[in-house]
Amino acid sequence: MLPFMEQFALTERAAARIAEIVAAGGREAALRVAVLAGGCSGFQYRFELDAAQQSDDLVIERAGAKVLVDPASLDLLAGSELDYTDELMGSHFAVRNPNAKSACGCGTSFSVE
Length: 113
Prior knowledge:
Blueprint: H1 4-7, E1 8-10, H2 12-25, E2 30-37, E3 43-50, E4 58-62, E5 65-69, H3 71-77, E6 80-87, E7 90-96, E8 102-103, E9 109-111
Parallel strand pairs: 1-6, 2-5
Antiparallel strand pairs: 2-3, 3-9, 4-5, 6-7, 8-9
């Protein structure tokens, strides 16, 4: 098994934004990053606040932020990095995934074939 930092990484920008969102919500939570079947390319990313850490979750903590990834999603996210971009066209979390062979224009759907 890869060390957790090689399995999934979190940039400083993403950690800062997660910490802001959690603080604004006023409750203890982590950002859950999951991969679901669907989207226009076969798989899609899902981001949601989750207060319930599961026993088999990979937990990444950085700069006061916590990210949870379930084992099934981790298979498709191995070696990936979560970043946060704040640009003129909008701000969003983005996954740089070396396993994705193609992606659609929305940036949240990808294929591994």
